[in-house]
Amino acid sequence: MPKKPKKSGGTPATVALTTAGTAFTVHAYDHDPASPSYGEEAAVALGVCPDRVFKTLVADVDGELTVAVVPVAGQLDLKALAAAVGAKRATMADPVAAERTTGYVRGGISPLGQRKRLRTVLDASASGHPTICVSAGRRGLEVELAPADLAALTGAVLAPIGRA
Predict the structure, then answer these.
(1) What is the DSSP string of 34-84?
(2) What Cα–Cα distance (Å) separates residue 133 from each residue in 28, 55, 65, 113, 156?
(3) I need a labelling partner for 39 at 20 to 30 A (CA). Which of 1, 16, 74, 105 fits?
(4) How does pLDDT run across 103-131, given as a tens digit for each residue?
(5) Are 101 and 120 within 8 A, CB to CB?
């Protein structure tokens, strides 16, 4: 059986951004495996306000995996997430299911370039920034892009799903 050629040019997230012709900047940093919070670690390492660094969380919303993108400085409001997509209940997804479905490892899940495109909700606070940072698909790598571009590429709904 012939081998498939290896893909090069970055992570699935950066490949998706490049393919779409979206302006973005990649920021790499040395990830510390002992860090208790991947997102806060990224904010400190990059010298970016935690309100502009967003974490990608996967939730089970009425039986359907859904991506929530919220600032690392806060938490995901599961009731608000469910309401944002017209559902009744949301819980955090099983980490193994999140990794298998997205194709990324925990702490490196990107809202972009996922193995299976999931319904996505971006916290409304993102629109208050010219650019935000999200995972580029692996620990220690972030992409900075306009929130409108992230929403367009993921088909995200903007809603107030984060809380301090």
Answers:
(1) T-S-HHHHHHHHHT--GGGBEEEEEEEETTEEEEEEEETTSEE-HHHHHHH
(2) 11, 9, 22, 15, 16
(3) 16
(4) 999 889 999 999 999 999 999 999 999 99
(5) no
Q: How many residues does the chain have?
A: 164
Which residues does residue 92 pair with via DSSP β-bridges, in sequence order?
Answer: 59
User: pTM of the predicted model, to two decimals?
Assistant: 0.91
Residue type (1 letter), 29: Y
Structure tokens at 19: 């393919």
- Please check whether residue 8 is in contact with residue 125, taking contact to mean a CB–CB distance below 8 angstroms: no
For residue 87, the one-letter residue type is: A
Q: In what order do the strands lie in the sheet with 54-61?
A: 90-92, 54-61, 64-71, 119-123, 157-159
Cα–Cα distance between 51 and 22 in angstroms, integer? 22
Amino acid found at 156: A
